[in-house]
Every structure is written in structure tokens, then in C-alpha cells.
Design brief:
The protein is of the alpha/beta class and about 250 residues long. It is about 50% helix and about 15% strand. The longest helix is centred in the middle third of the chain and has 29 residues, at about 105-135. The chain starts with 7 loop residues before the first strand and ends in a 6-residue tail after the last strand. Bound molecules: NADPH dihydro-nicotinamide-adenine-dinucleotide phosphate (NDP).
């Protein structure tokens, strides 16, 4: 039997990149998946249809700005009603707006903190009672090695990703006796549309710091998330797993 058969997974930022690979992998393991993303409706619907067709599971798309508290509460409530609950919550949506702190605008600080960190407060809060009632659940938050190490020109992003780790540990402690695991994954340099849009010189410099000498694939992150979402990881909580080719060891 597939490891996640009968489970419902909600994945944010799931229309492309790492989020799509995660939703696809969880579906491959038998989970029904709900994809939240801010992309164009037709792109999100196409992403969900591809997963449903290739993996033979229920896959739905919901356009939702995860930084918007009210929108998240409303949409998660609808998912819980329609799907009978949420078993696995993967908080993946994220953006970067890189500049040295002196040149960073207040707007870019707020935007990155809202999408990368506040979004997780929004979704976890929306799913909290559902997990307490089920006395089971897996919450997996996507952080970054930048949140562990800091990174010049990423004050907003690193503060958010470091915050994700602290939030993960707090939620893990709050829900530990309720059968809910909460863990974080810290990717290094992964090939996605986000890194494709990076300054290529900066990317080259970043790659020079990777002990394994190459970038990772979205699937490398998805495999780790699928492990954390399964009962193979049932005694792991409050952990941060680096999937980074050794950058932050
Ligand atoms: P992408 O930019 O490729 O994908 C991010 C997805 O999130 C997009 O589909 C985007 O939608 C969506 N999104 C953005 N804002 C929102 C929002 N407010 N509400 C809902 N969805 C939103 O990024 P990656 O796949 O590279 O990154 C995924 C996660 O992994 C992020 O949290 C990132 O910080 C983290 N990470 C990535 C690394 C990498 O090397 N790629 C390294 C370390 C961490 P759209 O833009 O269409 O609106």
C-alpha cells in the first residue's frame, strides 16, 4: 500500500517549482492533494490536473494568497469541509526580494515577511483545531539554509526563514502530545524558476560554496517532505533537515 493512502495534503505555492514537486510526490505516495497558489487560475488548474492524471488521485487547485489571513481561513475551512479534513500541511510558498539592508525598502521587508512567515501563522492557525480533533497530523515548513546561516542582501528573507525555524519548534512543542509532528526542511540551492531568475554571477558564487558541487532538484526536497509526512518519521518533531549538498554543514 502506498504510504500516504487515505491522507489529505494541503501544499502552498504548489503550482510550480518545489511546491509542485512536493504535491506530486505526496500524490505518488497516495495522498489526495490540494494546491494553494497565487498563480493564474488556468496554470493552477493545469498543475492539479497533471497530478490527478499521472498519479490517479484527487488533486484540486485553489487560488489563494497565503499572506492574506482572512483568505486563508476561508479557503482552508472550505478544504476541510470538502475533503473531510487535512492530514498533512506543507507550507512552501515563498518569495525573495534581495538587496543589501541599506537599500531595502520597507515594502520589500513587509512583503517577504508576510509571504514567507506570516503565511505559516495563517495556515497553521486555520488547521490547528482540525489537527487537535484528529489527534494526528504532519506540518512541514519550508525554510532555507539562509535562515540558518544568514546571507548578505537577504535581511528580509533570512529573517523570515529563521523565523520559520523558531515557529516550527514552537508548534512542535505545542502539539507534541496531540500526535502532531511539525518539522522544517532547509533547502540549499535548488533548480527552480526562483533560482533561474537569480543574478547568474551570484548563482555561480553560490555554487562554489556547495561541497557536492552542483544544485539540487525540486525532487530532492519533495523526497524529504514525503518522508516527514509518513509514519517512518513519527518520532521526529521540531527538527530542521538540511537538503543542501552540504552548504550549511
Ligand atoms: P518558485 O518561485 O519557483 O515557486 C513559488 C511558488 O509560490 C510560486 O508558484 C508562487 O506563485 C507561489 N507564491 C508566491 N507568493 C504566494 C502567495 N502569496 N500565496 C500563494 N502562493 C504564492 O519558488 P521555489 O520553488 O524555488 O521555492 C519554494 C520554497 O522553497 C520557497 O519558500 C523558497 O523560499 C524555498 N527555498 C527555495 C530554494 C531554491 O534554491 N529554489 C532554496 C531555499 C529555500 P506565483 O509566483 O505564480 O504567484
Amino acid at each position: 500500500m502506498a504510504k500516504l493512502e487515505g491522507k489529505v495534503a494541503l501544499v502552498t505555492g504548489a503550482a510550480r517549482g518545489i511546491g509542485f514537486a512536493i504535491a506530486d510526490k505526496l500524490a505518488q505516495e497516495g495522498a489526495s492533494v490540494v494546491l494553494f497558489d497565487l498563480c493564474a487560475e488556468e496554470d493552477g488548474v493545469a498543475a492539479a490536473a497533471k497530478i490527478a492524471q499521472e498519479r490517479g488521485v484527487t488533486a484540486k487547485f485553489q487560488r489563494c494568497d497565503v499572506s492574506n489571513y482572512e483568505a486563508v481561513q476561508t479557503n482552508v475551512k472550505a478544504v476541510i469541509k470538502e475533503m473531510g479534513g487535512v492530514d498533512i500541511l506543507v507550507n512552501n510558498a515563498g518569495i525573495c526580494r534581495d538587496k543589501v539592508l541599506l537599500a531595502m525598502s520597507e515594502q520589500d521587508w513587509d512583503l517577504v515577511l508576510n509571504i514567507n512567515l506570516k503565511s505559516m501563522f495563517n495556515t497553521i492557525k486555520a488547521c490547528y483545531r482540525n489537527f487537535m480533533k484528529k489527534k494526528a497530523g504532519k506540518i512541514i515548513n519550508i525554510s532555507s539554509v539562509s535562515g540558518l546561516m544568514g546571507n548578505a542582501a537577504q535581511a528580509n528573507y533570512t529573517a523570515a526563514k529563521g523565523g520559520v525555524i523558531a515557529l516550527t519548534k514552537t508548534v512542535a512543542r505545542e502539539l507534541a502530545t496531540r500526535g502532531v509532528n511539525c518539522n522544517a526542511v532547509a533547502p540549499g540551492a535548488i533548480e527552480t524558476p526562483m533560482t533561474a531568475s537569480m543574478d547568474q554571477e551570484a548563482l555561480k558564487a553560490l555554487l562554489a560554496t556547495v561541497p557536492m558541487g552542483h544544485m539540487g532538484k525540486a525532487e530532492d526536497i519533495a523526497n524529504c517532505v514525503a518522508f516527514l509526512a509518513s509514519d517512518d518519521a513519527k518520532y521526529i518533531t521540531g527538527e530542521v533537515i538540511r537538503v543542501d549538498g552540504g552548504i550549511a554543514m
